[in-house]
Write a structure and sequence with these properties.
- The chain is mainly α.
- It has one domain (3-65).
- It has 3 helices and no strands.
- The radius of gyration is 15 Å and the shape is elongated.
Length: 66
C-alpha cells in the first residue's frame, strides 16, 4: 500500500474514532442520555438534558480534546 494512501486511511480512521469518543463523552455518565437526546440538547430542544449536556459534559469533552 502506498505511503500517502495509508496516511489518508489512518487519518480518516483516527478522525472517526475521535468523533465517536466525543459523542460517547456527551452521552455516557451517571445519567446516560440517548444520542438523539444529546443532539436535541445541543440544539436546545430538550429542556431536561440541556443543563447536563451543555453545562457539564460539553466543557469536559472539549477540554479533553484541547
Amino acid at each position: 500500500m502506498p505511503t500517502r494512501r495509508r496516511a489518508v486511511l489512518v487519518l480518516a480512521l483516527l478522525t472517526a474514532l475521535g468523533i465517536a469518543n466525543f459523542a460517547a463523552a456527551l452521552a455516557v455518565g451517571s445519567i446516560s442520555i440517548h444520542p438523539s437526546q444529546v443532539l436535541a440538547a445541543l440544539l436546545g430542544e430538550n429542556v431536561e438534558q440541556v443543563s447536563i449536556v451543555r453545562d457539564l459534559r460539553l466543557p469536559r469533552a472539549l477540554a479533553a480534546f484541547a
